[in-house]
Design a protein that fits this description.
Helix content: 10-25%
Oligomer: single chain
Number of strands: 26
Number of helices: 5
Strand order of the largest sheet: 18-19-11-10-22-23
C-alpha cells in the first residue's frame, strides 16, 4: 500500500491472534495496522476454508455474465448484482441506488421519489428519471476503466473466450478521495488515515490462452475449463525475489554526528523504503523505482496545461515537497485501476506562488484529463544521472544524494545477482533468472537507532530472499462464452450452514420423562422427611394433544 506508515510488522508465519495494547506505552501506527491485518487474514482464511477458492451464496450469487451482441466492435457483457467470494475476499456487484435530489418545487410540495417524476416549471408533471440497471456492464464496471477507443480493451472477436474475475487491493489516500480529508484540520496539515479498497474487474481471456488439454482443444465439461483456468492463473504469479541489507559507507567517520560511528545505515532519520517494479518482464525488460517514504508523497492536481501542472499544495515541509530534479509519476484512479506503468517524468521548474510545476513531458493519453478520476503526482526518490557520495552529503533540498544505474522511461533497470545501492548504505539484491510483474513491491524499514535495516536473515546474519509483499492478485472463472447465444456459467454457489433443529427421538423423550419422575420423587421424599404434607403429583403429560372436536362429541353423549 502507498501509505505513510512507519513499518509493516504483520508476519503470518508467527500466528499472532491479536495485538495487545499496554498502559503507558507509545502507540504506533504499525500496531493498529497489524491488528487490522490479523483480523482480515483470519476472516478471509475462515471464509476460504468454508467456501473454497470461490463461490457465492445460493440465493444472492453475484457476477452472472451474459453476452450482449453489438456491432462486433462494441460487444458487451452484463454483470449481475449480488455477492461472491474469491479466496475468502467478499465482493459485491450490486449497483448503488441513486439518491433523491431536492427539487425546485413550491414549498410544501414533496420531492419526487426515485423513479417518479416531479413537477416542471409550469406546474405540470416532469418526466420520470430512468431507473439505473440492477447490475453493471463490461464497459461501465466501476474499477476496470475500459476504453472503447482502445482495441485491446474490446471483447475478443472470436469465440470462445472466458470471462473471469480479477481481484486485488490498493490503498486510497485523500489525494484520490478528497472526502477522506477532515477540512476542519485545515489545508496546512497532512491528511489522516488512508484506506484499503478491494478492486474487482471482469475481464476476457481468449480461449486459446487456456491451452485446454484435449485432442481438438474443445472442453468436454465445465470442470475442464475451470482446471485450465486454474493453471493459467497460477502462471500469472510473479517469481521475483529480493533481499535488502545495509552497509557502512566509505568515509563514515567524516560525519559522526548523524549516527554513531559504527552504524551502517547513514540516513539522518528513520525511513520506510519502498522498492517497486515499474515495468515487468525478464531482467532485461524490467525496471524499478524506489521511495524513502513508501511512495506516500503525493500531490493532488487541480489543473493540467501541457507540461505545467497546478497542484492543490506543494507539500507541508521541505521533506515532503517537490524540487527541481525530482522524479514523479503522473497518474489517476483510472491508470491505477488498469495497472499499466506510465513513463516517469522529471520536475523541470517550480513556481511556488502559483503552486505549479513544469514537467519534462506531457502525461500519456487521457491521464489527468478527467477531474472525476482525481489525478495526482506521486514522488519517487531515485535520481537518474547522479551518483551516491561516499560522505553521504546532502544537496540543497536536504536529501542525500544516491546512486543510480542505467535507466529507461525514468525508472532504473533491474540488475540481477549483485547488490545495488539506493542511498545511505541501503542495498537491494535481485535474484537471477526471475520474472517481474508491474506493481510488485518490497518494503524495507531503516532505523537510525541500530544503523541497520529490518530484513529477515539466517543464523549467519545473511539476508534472506523474499517474494514481493504485494500486490496479491486473485482470480476466479465466471463464464465460458461459446457464442452470441451460448454462455456457460462457471460460478459456484453454496447454501447456508444452519439447518432446522431435528425433533427429539423417542429415547430422548423417555429420558426426559424419567428425569422428571426422579425430580418429583426426590421432592416428595424431602417433604416427608420434614413432616410436610405430601406435594401433589403433577398432572400426567398426554402423549398427544386432545382433539377439541372429539371432546365436544364426548360431552354431547354420543
Amino acid at each position: 500500500m502507498h501509505a505513510d506508515i512507519s513499518r509493516d510488522t504483520f508476519r503470518p508465519e508467527r500466528h499472532y491472534s491479536a495485538v495487545i495494547a499496554q498502559q503507558g506505552r507509545v502507540q504506533l501506527d504499525a500496531d493498529a495496522n497489524e491488528q487490522a491485518a490479523i483480523q482480515l487474514a483470519h476472516a478471509r482464511t475462515v471464509a476460504a476454508d468454508l467456501i473454497g477458492q470461490h463461490g457465492g451464496p445460493r440465493d444472492a450469487t453475484g457476477f452472472a455474465v451474459d453476452f450482449v451482441p453489438g456491432n462486433r466492435e462494441l460487444d458487451d457483457l452484463t454483470i449481475g448484482g449480488g455477492r461472491y467470494y474469491v479466496d475468502g475476499i467478499p465482493l459485491d456487484a450490486t449497483r448503488p441506488e441513486p439518491g433523491v435530489p431536492v427539487t425546485d418545487d413550491e414549498p410544501g410540495q414533496p420531492a419526487a421519489e426515485d423513479g417518479e417524476g416531479g413537477t416542471d416549471g409550469d406546474g405540470g408533471q416532469a418526466p420520470a428519471a430512468p431507473r439505473p440497471p440492477a447490475g453493471w456492464t463490461y464497459w461501465d464496471q466501476p474499477d476496470a476503466y475500459r476504453d472503447p477507443e482502445r482495441p485491446g480493451d474490446r471483447l475478443p472477436a472470436q469465440f470462445p473466450y472466458l470471462a473471469y474475475l480479477k481481484v486485488w487491493e490498493r490503498s486510497v489516500t485523500a489525494a484520490e478521495d478528497p472526502l477522506l480529508r477532515e477540512v476542519a484540520l485545515g489545508s496546512a496539515l497532512p491528511d489522516t488515515a488512508a484506506r484499503l479498497k478491494v478492486v474487482w474487474q471482469v475481464l476476457p481471456l481468449p480461449g486459446a490462452a487456456l491451452e485446454l488439454d484435449t485432442a481438438d482443444g474443445a472442453p468436454r465439461n465445465q470442470d475442464q475449463v475451470r482446471e485450465a483456468f486454474a493453471r493459467w492463473a497460477a502462471a500469472q504469479t510473479s517469481t521475483a525475489r529480493m533481499a535488502a541489507r545495509s552497509r557502512r559507507p566509505e568515509h563514515a567517520d567524516d560525519e559522526p554526528c548523524l549516527v554513531r560511528p559504527d552504524a551502517r545505515y547513514r540516513g539522518p532519520e528513520n525511513q520506510m523504503y519502498r522498492v517497486e517494479i515499474h515495468e515487468g518482464g525478464t531482467a532485461k525488460e524490467a525496471t524499478f523505482k524506489w521511495s524513502r517514504e513508501n511512495g506516500s508523497v503525493t500531490f493532488a492536481v487541480d489543473e493540467l496545461d501541457g507540461t505545467w501542472v497546478e497542484l492543490a499544495s506543494l507539500g507541508s515541509d521541505d521533506k515532503l515537497d517537490l524540487n527541481v530534479g525530482d522524479v514523479v509519476e503522473f497518474t489517476d484512479s483510472g491508470a491505477l485501476g488498469r495497472g499499466e506503468p506510465l513513463p516517469l517524468l522529471r520536475v523541470e521548474e517550480v513556481d511556488l506562488p502559483g503552486r505549479r510545476v513544469r514537467l519534462s513531458g506531457e502525461p500519456e493519453g487521457q491521464v489527468g484529463r478527467r477531474p472525476e478520476l482525481h489525478p495526482f503526482l506521486r514522488r519517487w526518490d531515485h535520481r537518474p544521472g547522479t551518483r551516491r557520495t561516499g560522505s553521504g552529503g546532502t544537496g540543497g533540498s536536504g536529501r542525500t544524494k544516491q546512486g543510480a544505474g542505467e535507466t529507461r522511461g525514468g525508472a532504473l533497470r533491474i540488475e540481477e545477482g549483485g547488490w545495488l545501492p539506493l542511498e545511505d548504505g541501503v542495498h537491494v539484491y535481485f535474484e537471477p533468472g526471475r520474472t517481474y510483474r508491474s506493481g510488485d513491491f518490497w518494503t524495507v524499514a531503516a532505523r537510525t537507532a541500530t544503523g541497520d535495516v529490518e530484513w529477515p536473515a539466517d543464523a549467519a546474519r545473511r539476508p534472506l530472499l523474499r517474494s514481493p509483499h504485494g500486490i496479491a492478485t486473485h482470480y476466479a472463472p465466471l463464464a465460458w462464452v461459446l457464442s452470441e447465444s451460448a454462455v456457460t456459467d462457471l460460478r459456484l454457489a453454496f447454501g447456508p450452514l444452519a439447518t432446522p433443529v431435528p425433533a427429539a427421538s423417542e429415547a430422548a423423550l423417555a429420558a426426559e420423562r424419567a428425569a422428571e419422575e426422579e425430580t418429583v420423587a426426590a421432592e416428595r421424599a424431602a417433604a416427608e422427611a420434614a413432616g410436610q404434607p405430601e406435594a401433589p403429583a403433577p398432572p400426567p403429560v398426554p402423549a398427544e394433544a386432545p382433539d377439541p372436536d372429539q371432546d365436544a362429541t364426548d360431552r354431547s353423549g354420543s
